[in-house]
Amino acid sequence: MKKGLLVLTILGLTANFAYTQSQRSEAARQVQAGEVVPFGDNLFVKVSKSTKQFAGVKVKGEAVVVVLDMDAGKPGATLFYNLTADPATTELFLLSGTKKLAPRAVIEDFPSWGKDNDQEVDTLDPKETIGGVTLNFQQKGSIALLFDVPPEDAKTPKKLSVALRMVLPKDERRSFVVTL
Length: 180
Hints:
Layout: H1 2-26, E1 29-32, E2 36-39, E3 43-50, E4 62-71, E5 77-82, E6 92-96, E7 99-101, E8 105-109, E9 121-123, E10 132-137, E11 140-149, E12 158-168, E13 172-179
Parallel strand pairs: 1-13
Antiparallel strand pairs: 2-3, 3-4, 4-11, 5-10, 5-12, 6-7, 6-12, 8-9, 8-11, 12-13
């Protein structure tokens, strides 16, 4: 009887531990700007605010540029993320106070793409709601996002919400919120 009770207690503790671990991995992690977020063993993402220029993109309010610096080492990685100009469907958005803002434009800079790394400014069309992006890269690269913050929200605290899915070498999804 004592043996059975001991076994049930151990199973209960193990199940509780596994459940709390799975809950933690699904919740959006809170990080500070400049903090490194690991994906598996070889992909590392760092988010910072930037002054990078987006030629040809006009904003009505304050231009806020955020850069996701990525390092996948020699093995490389394949990432997927949903990026649209619609705040309801994009997986990378800026919280300015209580407002959810979608990016206006994006620049992808991945040197491992060679001649295909044109680093051009891609303006996001608000009419397009499907915007899945798959990136396959090695070593380092970055994604720069431009947000147009309305003038009345210029002084409000800002946070960037990010949801990325690493497809290769290991299927893993991460969500985190960066305080800027």
